[in-house]
Amino acid sequence: MAQPEGEDLLSTEAAGAESEPTTVPARRSSFRRLLKDPQAVISAAVLLIIVLLGIFAPWIAEHGPNDAALSAVNAPVGAPDYPLGADQNGRDIFSRLLYSINTSVVSALIGAAVAISIGLTCGLIGGYFGGRIRGGIEWVFNLIMTLPGILLLIVLMPLTKGDFRVTMLIYGVLLAPGIYRLVRNVTVGVRNELYVDAARVSGLSTLRILGRHVMPVVQGPVIISTAFLMGSAIGVQSGLAFLGVGSTEVPSFGAMIAYGFTNLYVDSLQFVWPALMLGVMTASFVLFGNSLRDALEGARPKASSVSKSAGSKGPARHEQAPKNPGDADALLSIENLHLTYPDPSGTPKPVLNGVSLAVRPGETMGLVGESGSGKTQTAFAALGVLPGEASIPEGSIKLDGRELIGLSERQLRGIRGRDIAYVPQEPMSNLDPSFTIGAQMVESLRAASSVSRSAARKRAIELLGHVGIADPERTMRLYPHQISGGMAQRVLIATAVACRPRVLIADEPTTALDVTIQAEILDLLRDLQAEMGMAILLVTHNFGVVADICERMAVMQDGRVVETGDVAEVFRNPQHPYTQKLLASILDESVVRDDDRVLAGESSEGIN
Ligand SMILES: Nc1ncnc2c1ncn2[C@@H]1O[C@H](COP(=O)(O)OP(=O)(O)OP(=O)(O)O)[C@@H](O)[C@H]1O
């Protein structure tokens, strides 16, 4: 397929041109999402109140954190001037609690800032450049990881002179390898994306690519890790103070807990206040980080059941839908499917306008149409993996007579992978760069068939061999960036057919691959179909692929199917003007074979 680089470059530029003005609304909508999340609002409010209490401690507290009064020794809660009582040295617990907040916040900021700045910078560089640069960086980080963390901080006490800020600085360095690994893995994954190659070819500087393409992907995981790091830094600082490492002059939850411990039988509450505050602070950091990540990464296409439009109740809203001719024996039957997404003003924007489609058992149906005609949305609707904001006001999707619209996520999970499976367009983007092929296959197999880990591993190795991977055992140990696109697609096909699904939806499974590999993947799909007897719905914009492998085809335009029929018949005698236009613009007699064998899908050779 002559999908020239020029076109890619133009689209990259166009995307770039578009991305500038959309940045502000995107940020605004992330912020709005954050404000709508009760977990985010509550945890942020709790943190804000705690931090403000720390900042205003000198004005709120009656006493200094180290002011001791003999008359106040072990004063109970509610004693005059000592709202939370006093410790065994006669120091105001409330005051020490407030000042300890500042110690914790400073520790969290130093520890997280050092870890993020070192880990993020090195992760981006190591992940993007690879080779010796990555080797050198990893050597240093591996060395750091061998150091015994807390023990080192204790041993270095003479060097830090008990200053918790210096201690947290060193702790930040010890935390950096975790961030490095995270960022490196994400960067390696993004670096292999086609759009990054396109950006590189179009002359974008490395810094710009890192900032524009890599950082947005990295920011979510880093933010959630920041929250964990802050919680961890607070915990470690308190732990060290509990052990007596550091200046006794510095108020800290850890030191307060230690004093509370020794005084547990005199007044148990002395121990409870700092422990409670420590718990609330660390939990708030983590909960807020989770919400922030969700907000920044946007509404993910959750594997949720498709939502029906407001007001539509029960599954009986598609009775008037026109029946598909010949769908009585259909395994997957889509009738009059309408799908909308809200536009920025909230008005539903139609994306599918009454799609009707029937896939019979054991057949390969090609779903063709120009970009944006709704092929993928139709496939996603059938799989029940539309994003949360999608709405189906009308229509029906039946698998072997069972209505899928309106099923709960739990019910859909029982169907996906077992009865209906999916092979995606971009194999690399569909494998997690942080996990080995084996780990990902085992996880998917266990999710689909609840087998033991060892059985899933055995089955994964078998499947990899079955889809033509030469050394399955070795491949299981590899990370996605260590295998080719063709191998990645074989891995995904192997996972998809693991439970012998009755319907396989393959969304442009060969688009991201080069021509030779495309033919191999089509052959593989054909072989697997012959062996397992599954029906395949093949989403493609490539008529060559349709001619090569499909028996029937449906042509989509503007969110509806305009023509359905046997491939040979549609190729010979297209009825709809849009099909005629598509065929006229795509077919080239000099490269496309028109013999009956090929059109009937009997040949094993690919056409492009
Ligand atoms: N989350 C979404 N919100 C709003 N509109 C969407 C969303 N996802 C898809 N669309 C719109 O749905 C329409 C159909 O998209 P779809 O991905 O199904 O097209 P397609 O035929 O598969 O195209 P391609 O061959 O390029 O993948 C497009 O106009 C697209 O902009």
UniProtKB/TrEMBL annotation:
<feature type="transmembrane region" description="Helical">
    <location>
        <begin position="222"/>
        <end position="243"/>
    </location>
</feature>
<feature type="region of interest" description="Disordered">
    <location>
        <begin position="1"/>
        <end position="24"/>
    </location>
</feature>
<dbReference type="Pfam" id="PF08352">
    <property type="entry name" value="oligo_HPY"/>
</dbReference>
<keyword id="KW-0547">Nucleotide-binding</keyword>
<dbReference type="InterPro" id="IPR003593">
    <property type="entry name" value="AAA+_ATPase"/>
</dbReference>
<keyword id="KW-0813">Transport</keyword>
<dbReference type="Pfam" id="PF00005">
    <property type="entry name" value="ABC_tran"/>
</dbReference>
<feature type="domain" description="ABC transporter">
    <location>
        <begin position="332"/>
        <end position="583"/>
    </location>
</feature>
<feature type="compositionally biased region" description="Acidic residues">
    <location>
        <begin position="1"/>
        <end position="10"/>
    </location>
</feature>
<keyword id="KW-0067">ATP-binding</keyword>
<dbReference type="InterPro" id="IPR025966">
    <property type="entry name" value="OppC_N"/>
</dbReference>
<protein>
    <submittedName>
        <fullName>Dipeptide/oligopeptide/nickel ABC transporter permease/ATP-binding protein</fullName>
    </submittedName>
</protein>
<dbReference type="InterPro" id="IPR050388">
    <property type="entry name" value="ABC_Ni/Peptide_Import"/>
</dbReference>
<keyword id="KW-1133">Transmembrane helix</keyword>
<keyword id="KW-1003">Cell membrane</keyword>
<feature type="compositionally biased region" description="Low complexity">
    <location>
        <begin position="301"/>
        <end position="314"/>
    </location>
</feature>
<dbReference type="InterPro" id="IPR035906">
    <property type="entry name" value="MetI-like_sf"/>
</dbReference>
<dbReference type="InterPro" id="IPR017871">
    <property type="entry name" value="ABC_transporter-like_CS"/>
</dbReference>
<dbReference type="InterPro" id="IPR003439">
    <property type="entry name" value="ABC_transporter-like_ATP-bd"/>
</dbReference>
<dbReference type="InterPro" id="IPR027417">
    <property type="entry name" value="P-loop_NTPase"/>
</dbReference>
<feature type="transmembrane region" description="Helical">
    <location>
        <begin position="105"/>
        <end position="127"/>
    </location>
</feature>
<dbReference type="Pfam" id="PF00528">
    <property type="entry name" value="BPD_transp_1"/>
</dbReference>
<keyword id="KW-0812">Transmembrane</keyword>
<comment type="similarity">
    <text>Belongs to the ABC transporter superfamily.</text>
</comment>
<feature type="transmembrane region" description="Helical">
    <location>
        <begin position="271"/>
        <end position="292"/>
    </location>
</feature>
<comment type="similarity">
    <text>Belongs to the binding-protein-dependent transport system permease family.</text>
</comment>
<dbReference type="InterPro" id="IPR000515">
    <property type="entry name" value="MetI-like"/>
</dbReference>
<feature type="region of interest" description="Disordered">
    <location>
        <begin position="299"/>
        <end position="327"/>
    </location>
</feature>
<feature type="transmembrane region" description="Helical">
    <location>
        <begin position="40"/>
        <end position="61"/>
    </location>
</feature>
<dbReference type="InterPro" id="IPR013563">
    <property type="entry name" value="Oligopep_ABC_C"/>
</dbReference>
<feature type="transmembrane region" description="Helical">
    <location>
        <begin position="139"/>
        <end position="160"/>
    </location>
</feature>
<dbReference type="Pfam" id="PF12911">
    <property type="entry name" value="OppC_N"/>
</dbReference>
<keyword id="KW-0472">Membrane</keyword>
<feature type="transmembrane region" description="Helical">
    <location>
        <begin position="166"/>
        <end position="183"/>
    </location>
</feature>
<feature type="domain" description="ABC transmembrane type-1">
    <location>
        <begin position="101"/>
        <end position="289"/>
    </location>
</feature>
